[in-house]
């Protein structure tokens, strides 16, 4: 397949590029502000040129500004524009092609469900409240112009476990120093996914015409922040008894901390389970041991 990928230089994009290439696909990164070097775009100015890509079989859309920052009004505007406006720009350009791609996989997030406490969420659950929930709903809806012409997949991704970036990489330093622990009171649920399973979901979604609509890309065993800290500490052979107090999270991170770190989203991957997806890392401990094997053996 000829696959256009946005956000190809990020953590997930880099890993996905390797996986797609290994599977025999041709990856065409959509680069920012680099006309003449292949397909390019500038979402800030609304410019996009897909002609150099030629005929496309699939699109994987991963681009978007990180939410891991204080959500000032300006930051919120940038985050929304980088997801909603950029997705709309891309999909409108795809609709102008002589033949649209067979499948469009858009990165979304379990932030769609908002802070729901201990309640189980699946793909049929309603949208939650808060900035992340509203953003994610708009983000998915921005691809609607492709509906009916292209198979749409909205990958609602949880916490990706990778030592190279994301939440796990940020947690490793305090845990290595022996000052790790739960965030807040530790009762909030974190829904996670091993990177290797996330990549396998994308490969399956590209190939299987039965896969469409929202798909929760999380492992079947979400855990509380307290349990996450306990398991990570055991894997690293470090104590995990130093909590990060709620008031510190709110003081340092503001609204982002309240929603993304202290909010509870207990998500079930109903679609993946119903379609027999073979999780390689179904438990948090096995996933962390596989990801951190290099460190455990030092």
Largest sheet: 6 strands, parallel
* CATH structural fold name: Rossmann fold
List the uncertain runs.
none
Question: β content, as a range?
Answer: 15-25%
C-alpha termini separation: 40 Å
What's the name of the CATH homologous superfamily? Answer: NAD(P)-binding Rossmann-like Domain
Helix fraction, binned, reads 25-40%
Shape: globular
Number of separate strands: 15
**CATH architectural arrangement:** 3-Layer(aba) Sandwich
Keywords for this entry:
38% helix, three-stranded mixed sheet, alpha/beta, 298 residues, Rossmann fold, globular, six-stranded parallel sheet
Give a written overview of the molecule.
The chain has 298 residues and is α/β, with parallel strands linked by helices. The protein has one domain: Rossmann fold (3-Layer(aba) Sandwich), CATH 3.40.50.720. It has eleven helices and 15 strands. It has helices at 11-22, 73-95, 131-141, 166-176, 195-207, 225-236, 246-253, 255-261, 270-274, 284-291, 293-296, and strands at residues 2-6, 26-29, 31-32, 40-42, 47-49, 58-61, 103-109, 120-121, 151-157, 159-161, 189-190, 192-194, 213-217, 223-224, 266-267. The protein has a six-stranded parallel sheet with strand order 2-1-6-7-9-13, with helices on both faces. β4 (40-42) and β5 (47-49) form a beta hairpin. 40% of the residues are buried. The model has no long low-confidence stretch (mean pLDDT 95).
Task: Give a short summary of the structure.
The chain is an alpha/beta fold and 298 residues long. The protein has helices at residues 11-22, 73-95, 131-141, 166-176, 195-207, 225-236, 246-253, 255-261, 270-274, 284-291, 293-296, and strands at 2-6, 26-29, 31-32, 40-42, 47-49, 58-61, 103-109, 120-121, 151-157, 159-161, 189-190, 192-194, 213-217, 223-224, 266-267.
């Amino acid at each position: 397949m000829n696959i256009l990928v946005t956000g190809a230089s990020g953590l997930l994009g880099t890993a996905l590029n390797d996986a797609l290439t290994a599977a025999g696909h041709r990856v065409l990164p959509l680069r920012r502000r680099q006309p003449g070097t292949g397909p390019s775009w500038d979402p800030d100015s609304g410019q996009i040129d897909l002609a150099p890509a030629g005929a496309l079989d699939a699109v994987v859309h991963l681009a978007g500004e990180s939410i891991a920052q204080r959500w000032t009004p300006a930051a919120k505007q940038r985050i929304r524009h980088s997801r909603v406006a950029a997705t709309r720009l891309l999909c409108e350009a795809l609709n102008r092609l002589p033949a649209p791609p067979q499948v469009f996989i858009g990165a979304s997030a379990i932030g769609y469900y908002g802070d729901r406490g201990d309640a189980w969420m699946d793909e049929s659950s309603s949208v939650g409240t808060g900035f992340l929930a509203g953003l994610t709903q708009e983000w998915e809806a921005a691809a609607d112009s492709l509906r009916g012409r292209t198979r749409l997949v909205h990958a609602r991704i949880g916490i990706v476990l990778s030592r190279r970036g994301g939440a796990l990489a940020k947690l490793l330093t305090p845990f290595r120093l022996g000052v790790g622990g739960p965030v807040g009171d530790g009762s909030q649920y974190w829904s996670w996914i091993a990177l290797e399973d996330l990549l396998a979901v994308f490969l399956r979604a590209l190939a299987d015409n039965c896969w469409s609509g929202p798909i929760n890309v999380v492992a079947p065993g979400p855990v509380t922040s307290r349990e996450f800290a306990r398991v990570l500490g055991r894997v690293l052979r470090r104590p995990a008894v130093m909590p990060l107090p709620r008031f510190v999270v709110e003081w340092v991170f503001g609204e982002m901390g309240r929603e993304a770190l202290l909010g509870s989203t207990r998500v079930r991957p109903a679609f993946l389970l119903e379609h027999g997806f073979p999780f390689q890392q179904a438990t948090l401990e096995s996933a962390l041991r596989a990801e951190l094997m290099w460190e455990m053996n030092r």
